[in-house]
Amino acid sequence: MNANKGNVSRSLFLSFLQRYLVGGLQFISVVVLARLLTPEEIGIYTIGAALMSIAQMFRDFGVGQYLVQEKSLSKEKVANAFGLTILLAWSIGLLVFFGAETIARYYNEPLLSAVIHVTAFNFFVIPFGSMTTPLLKRGMAFGGLLKLGVAVALASTTTVLVLAFLGYGVMSLAWASLCGSVVGAVLGRRRGFPTAFRGSNGAGRRCRCRHSA
Question: How many degrees, rounded to 5, is the angle at CA 30 between CA 10 and CA 173?
Answer without folding.
Answer: 105
